[in-house]
Design brief:
This protein is of the alpha/beta class. It has one domain: Maf protein (Alpha-Beta Complex). The protein is built from 7 helices and 7 strands; from the N terminus they run βαβαββαββααβαα. Strands 1, 2, 3, 4, 5, 6 and 7 form a 7-stranded mixed beta sheet that branches. The radius of gyration is 17 Å and the shape is elongated.
Length: 196
């Protein structure tokens, strides 16, 4: 079993996945800049952002110790993005943007990439996990119903696979389902086990 970790995320989905895996954790977050260098390869972007989150939380913990600091628990950070035809799709800004994003995903295949960074004892484990997602053609009524009922404004790609849209709208996926939820949990567990 994995010992207690620090989750550097406020994401309800990541919290749920760790609970399902019975990993004890404490949530510690700190606001971080989620921009990335222009021209950075797409696979590197979520890892870069996850690393910034993890390092920011490590600094926050260090600052709370005014003397000697020894890290007792791994810090886990993650960032998920959606990529359609080599274009990064972030979180929608409003209702119209969410509708536009889902219209663009309708009938298309896209990638969901989650970057993961784990810091512990001066070591870093970093990787990106990719899942291919294929949407059925979505009607305008389906898109508006989903956006109005579920308000997916905090989700990259304007949807959550575990909600209604995933049940009725996704034809199939290739890769880790939980990666699309926001954390490739089995790969994370294997990584954590190597540190303990």
């Amino acid at each position: 079993m994995v010992k207690e970790i620090i989750l550097a995320s406020k994401s309800d989905r990541r919290k749920t996945l760790l609970e399902w895996a019975e990993v004890p954790f404490e949530i510690i977050t700190r606001g971080t800049d989620e921009t990335y260098p222009e021209g950075m390869p797409v696979l590197d972007i979520p890892v870069h952002i996850a690393r910034e989150k993890a390092l920011s939380v490590l600094d926050k913990i260090r600052e709370s110790f005014h003397g000697e600091f020894h890290q007792h628990r791994p810090i886990l950070a993650a960032d998920t993005l959606v990529v359609l035809k080599d274009k990064v799709i972030g979180k929608p800004t409003d209702r119209e943007d969410a509708i536009r994003i889902l219209q663009s995903l309708s009938g298309q295949q896209h990638q969901v990439i989650t970057g993961v960074v784990i810091l512990f004892g001066g070591k870093e484990i970093a990787f990106a996990d990719v899942t291919e997602v294929y949407f059925h053609e979505l009607s305008q009524n389906q898109i508006e119903f989903y956006v109005d009922k579920y308000e997916p404004y905090d989700k990259a790609g304007a949807y959550a696979i575990q909600e209604w849209i995933g049940v009725v709208g996704i034809e199939h996926i290739s890769g880790d389902f939980y990666n699309v939820m926001g954390l490739p949990i089995s790969r994370v567990l294997k990584s954590l086990e190597t540190l303990q």
